[in-house]
Amino acid sequence: MITKALEKLFDTLISLKMAVFIIVAIGIVSAVGTVYESKYDAHYAQTFIYHSIVMYFLLGLLCTTLICVMIDRWPWKRHHSAFVLAHIGIIILILGSVVTRYFGIDGTMYFPLGETRRYVDLQGSAIGVYVQSPEGRFSQYDYKIADFLQNPPSEEDKYTISLDGGKKIEFLKYFHYSERMTRVAESDSRAAGPAIRVQFESSRINMADWVILSQAKPWESINLGPAKLVLTQDIFKYEGGNAIVFRPIEDNMLEYMVFSDSKGGLAKKGKAAVGDVVQTGWMDIKVRILRFMPKAEKIVWFEEKQYPNKITVPAVQFKFDGEEYWMQKNSTVKLFTNQASYVVSFENIRYDVGFPMKLKEFRIGHYQGTQNPMSYESDVVVNGKVYNISMNEPFKHNGFTFYQSSFEKDEEGKPVASILSVNKDPGRWIKYLGSFLIVFGAILLMYFKKTLAKPRKARKVAV
What we know:
This protein is α+β, with helices and mostly antiparallel strands and 463 residues long.
């Protein structure tokens, strides 16, 4: 009974119907992955489609079928070498892809000018907890890879990190696509400070914004380019330029000072309340006080979105000591206990390449007569030697390949950071071998097909 069942299964695996089913199924899954990638993003498509159990099952079934087909042809003849090599090549190619998937590195390295880096940012997420020493230095307390995309936390299934003194960080929600929302609210927190909402009015501008001052900072400002607005609780030290300074003096009253660059210092001062307008004297700009809070803080939360857009970010919510906090990807929150202070980060998975790299210089080439970048390249220092990384010339070291990917520029268009793509693929040569065997098998197939198609010469029969 068992023997007949195995024979029937073997016959099914080597049948043409099975081959057609596998090829069509892989094609459909790949097509679905392409749709997901365009609708969501590459990481989402890889997680749920390309690296899904369904895809791995189909690839495993393909390898099993190829092996069974080769066994069915045993003992192999000379003309079987073409299809045997091609089948072995496909299996080796899939094996190389698996090695790359689980042992390869594919990420980015962000390089501010003049700084040193040794970590690569990968696609996955991690939670890092760092504790501050009495001297003010931070050391790693805990670091965990958090696969929130496939296993998001919830109120019923919290992701917990324990701190000293019995305190816990409990992660409650994860949004893969979310938009950052903010509002300013009155607060009794020790860190809360004064906040004002002002409106700038002139013939060229009409804008409103909040200025929020925390107790940890001496002042906060809004930069308007040729001028700035400053909110402070201390004495303001003028260092040139146009500035208007507000300082709370009563619950509903502010002291203001207007400094003028043309006059070289203080132009006028006075008191103002909510609703008042202060003429600055810089061109025709005036400042209207819309709202004033003696103690306030910015409340930040995130709203989940179904699909990504230009401003969506991954975000996570956690609870600590009875209060709830939000963090977006690659941001931090500082927490305090009776024993120590901690910094919690929600970040990309970091991989140590094993050696430091310093960005010495970054250059951009432009198309003649335009500011459009034609080329860009980085000079990096590794072990005391300078290496150049350009768009067409990667840098290879210790099994890693560094490609010039992009760059970041400031508001004036000057480059401030270089972005490198970093790749380490231990399965590359396995995939090369598999590809070579497939191509060589195809060549042999055409050769044998041509040879076997030749008509044999008729033998001469003696009469």
